[in-house]
């Protein structure tokens, strides 16, 4: 029988977009409880891929009581510690979901006279495809490249993000790829048969903690 790990790895690979990075107008880093995302955003900035970096995120379910500041502020501190100059950073500390990330970051950039045509979006590895689908839906007409910490699935779990939680989130996010377009939240995307079969098996095995329920 195929292990839970191997089934989840099928979803993990599907959720990666495999985008090549290019010089962009802005790097937009989406907040979470995973500080490695902030490190990846900082690394891309330090490679000279954009002149500005935005950190976006309020306090979420996984960071409430863990972070003493908003996710955006905590991520900015990580970036500054890695050598990103404070004057290159914009902080958006209100958003609680990807739609908010887009709306509030767009508003913040507009207030600075910035209308980016090319953006690099930095997210957790298993949320790349959802971030892409959401941005293409709510901010069309832009050249969007998605990036995430370059970490293999086997090496990704941490005490704060254990494997079981990651698999539950993966299952929930693949479901959202299917159901969110009809709700107006994302652009439609194809889900290959092997991915959906793996998803169905993981649901049957009890990974239902992050499913959308009507």
Which keywords apply here?
about 210 residues; five-stranded parallel sheet; globular; about 45% helix
Précis, in short:
The chain has seven helices and five strands. The protein has 214 residues and is of the alpha/beta class. The chain has a five-stranded parallel sheet, sandwiched between helices.
SSE blueprint and pairings:
Layout: H1 4-15, E1 26-30, H2 35-46, E2 52-56, H3 71-81, E3 89-92, H4 98-111, E4 118-122, H5 128-138, E5 143-147, H6 163-183, H7 193-204
Parallel strand pairs: 1-2, 1-4, 2-3, 4-5
Strand numbers in spatial order across the main sheet: 3-2-1-4-5
Please estimate the helix content.
40-55%
Rg measurement, Å: 17 Å
CATH fold annotation of the largest domain: Rossmann fold
Poorly predicted parts: none
How does the major sheet shape up? Answer: 5 strands, parallel
**C-alpha end-to-end distance:** 31 Å
H/I helix tally: 7
- What would you give as the CATH superfamily of the largest domain? HUPs
SSE class: alpha/beta
Mean pLDDT comes to 94
Instruction: Tell me, briefly, the overall form.
Output: globular
- Counting copies of identical and different chains, the oligomeric state is single chain
What would CATH call the architecture of the largest domain? 3-Layer(aba) Sandwich
In the CATH hierarchy, what is the class of the largest domain? Alpha Beta
Tally of domains: 2
**In sequence order, what are the helices and strands, one letter per element?**
HEHEHEHEHEHH
- Number of DSSP E strands: 5
- What is the beta-strand fraction? 5-15%
